[in-house]
UniProtKB/TrEMBL annotation:
Keyword Cell division belongs to the record: no
Subcellular location, principal: cytoplasm
Catalysed transformations (reactions): 1-(5-phospho-beta-D-ribosyl)-ATP + H2O = 1-(5-phospho-beta-D-ribosyl)-5'-AMP + diphosphate + H(+)
Protein name as catalogued: Phosphoribosyl-ATP pyrophosphatase
Protein source organism: Nitratireductor pacificus pht-3B
GO molecular function terms listed in the Swiss-Prot or TrEMBL record: ATP binding; phosphoribosyl-ATP diphosphatase activity
Any single biological process term in GO: L-histidine biosynthetic process
Subcellular location: Cytoplasm
EC number(s) recorded for this UniProt protein: 3.6.1.31
Signal sequence, start to end: none
Pfam family, one: PRA-PH
Cited NCBIfam families: histidine_hisI, PRK00400.1-5
Domain of life: Bacteria
InterPro entries: HisE (IPR008179), PRib-ATP_PPHydrolase-like (IPR021130)
Amino acid sequence: MSAFDLAKLEAIIAERARSGDAGSWTAKLFAKGTEKAAQKLGEEAVETVIAAVKHDRQGLVSESADLLYHWLVVLALEGVPLDEVMRELESRTGQSGLAEKAARKD
Ligand SMILES: N=c1c2ncn([C@@H]3O[C@H](COP(=O)(O)OP(=O)(O)OP(=O)(O)O)[C@@H](O)[C@H]3O)c2ncn1[C@@H]1O[C@H](COP(=O)(O)O)[C@@H](O)[C@H]1O
């Protein structure tokens, strides 16, 4: 299991965004804003789907990494911390999550 995780990538993205470094893809995306970053996110999602349906295992790994990176960039641009998404996912697990889901259907 890799020691790398999405929280570490989120921290790297925040640091690179602040850097304004001309050689930084992250800084360039931040300068262009949510619309461009969300467009890239959509492209990476489509490329991930294509790799999956082609059963291209290495492509699926590589496109998934691109997808997660661009997803975190969009979250950061919109001021949504990764932890908020994790808490949302957590709320959907176990009994309390199921109870909430049932309540939403009423
Ligand atoms: N994980 C990533 C990551 N995944 C994808 N990309 C970049 O996303 C870009 C877009 O991918 P595409 O396949 O669409 O490339 P492209 O065809 O050149 O792009 P367009 O022509 O469509 O604009 C590429 O330039 C990739 O390098 C990433 N760029 C950065 N990171 C992480 O962010 C860190 C900081 O990077 P910089 O901001 O570049 O310093 C890195 O150390 C990595 O940890």
